[in-house]
Design goal:
By secondary structure, this protein is mostly helical. The chain has 3 domains: 92 residues; 85 residues; 57 residues, no CATH class. The chain contains 15 helices and no strands.
C-alpha cells in the first residue's frame, strides 16, 4: 500500500475472498489507499462502494482515502459525494477528511466549494492546518480570486499557522495570472517586500513562489523586476529552471527589450 502497488493489493484482496475469508476494514482501506497512490480513482471508488456487500462500514480513513483518489483523478463531484455520504453514515469529519474534500474541490476548479468547506471547519469545531489553507488558497487562485487567496494567507498567523513555500506560491500564482505583480511581490515574506518594491534587491526566499512572482512581473510588463529576481536566485541557493527563464524572457518580450 505504501508503495502504491494497487494491482498487487487487489490480487491479495481477491485471494482473501477465494479462501472464503471476509476482507476487513483494514484490508479494504489498504487496497483503496494503494489505488489512490497509483491514481486509480475508479478502482478506489469501486472498492469503497463494495464494502457494504461484505458487511463492512467505511471509516473516516476509508472516506479520506477515497476522496484523495478522486482528487488525483480530478473527480471533484465523486469526491463531494463521498464527503456528503459521511454524514449519512454518521461519521464525524476531522481535519484529514476536510483537507481531502478541499483538495478535491481545488483540483476540480471549484473555488467556492473549497472556500465553503474551509469556512465550515470552524462550525464543526475543526481547527484548519497549513494543508487546509494552502488547498483553499490554491483553489481561489485557480478561480482568479486573488484577493481571497491573499486574505487566506494573511489569516494564517491568526490561526497560529506558519505560511510555507506552498502558501506563498499559491497566493503568488493567484496574482500571476492576472498580472497583479505588486500583489504577487507583496505576498512574499514581509521582511523581503521592501527590497522588491523599491528595486533594492532580491528577497532571501526561494522556490516556486519566485517563479510565480517572476511570472506576475512578466504579465505586468515589469521586465526589470523580473530580471532582478532571476539574477538573484542563484545567490539564494535556488537554481533557476525553465519556468524562471521563460517568464523572464516573456517579461522582456512584452516590454520590447
Amino acid at each position: 500500500e505504501k508503495g502504491g502497488q494497487w494491482q498487487f493489493a487487489i490480487v491479495l484482496l481477491k485471494s482473501i475472498r477465494k479462501l472464503n475469508l471476509a476482507p476487513s476494514v483494514v484490508s479494504m482501506n489498504a487496497a483503496i489507499s494503494a489505488c489512490e497512490r497509483s491514481g486509480q480513482w475508479q478502482c478506489a471508488l469501486a472498492l469503497f462502494d463494495s464494502m457494504p456487500l461484505y458487511g463492512l462500514s467505511p471509516t473516516v480513513v476509508t472516506c479520506s482515502a477515497a476522496m484523495r483518489a478522486c482528487e488525483k483523478g480530478s473527480q471533484w463531484l465523486h469526491g463531494a459525494l463521498v464527503f456528503r455520504s459521511m454524514r449519512l453514515m454518521r461519521l464525524s469529519h476531522d481535519d484529514y477528511s476536510c483537507n481531502a474534500a478541499i483538495g478535491v474541490c481545488e483540483k476540480g476548479g471549484q473555488w467556492e466549494r473549497a472556500l465553503g468547506l474551509f469556512a465550515s471547519m470552524a462550525q464543526m469545531h475543526i481547527r484548519p492546518n497549513e494543508i487546509s489553507c494552502n488547498a483553499a488558497m490554491s483553489a481561489c487562485g485557480k478561480g482568479a480570486e486573488w484577493r481571497r487567496s491573499s486574505a487566506l494567507l494573511d489569516s494564517m498567523p491568526g490561526l497560529q499557522l506558519l505560511p510555507d513555500e506552498i502558501s506563498w506560491t499559491a497566493a503568488a500564482c493567484a496574482c500571476e495570472h492576472l498580472g497583479m505583480w505588486r500583489h504577487a511581490l507583496a505576498v512574499l515574506p514581509s521582511e523581503h517586500q521592501t527590497h522588491l518594491l523599491s528595486d533594492g534587491g532580491v528577497p532571501a526566499n526561494r522556490g516556486t513562489s519566485f517563479n510565480a512572482a517572476v511570472g506576475a512581473c512578466a504579465s505586468g510588463r515589469q521586465w526589470q523586476r523580473a530580471i532582478a529576481l532571476l539574477c538573484g536566485l542563484p545567490r539564494l541557493q535556488f537554481t533557476p529552471d525553465g519556468v524562471s527563464f521563460n517568464a523572464a524572457i516573456s517579461a522582456c518580450a512584452r516590454a520590447q527589450r
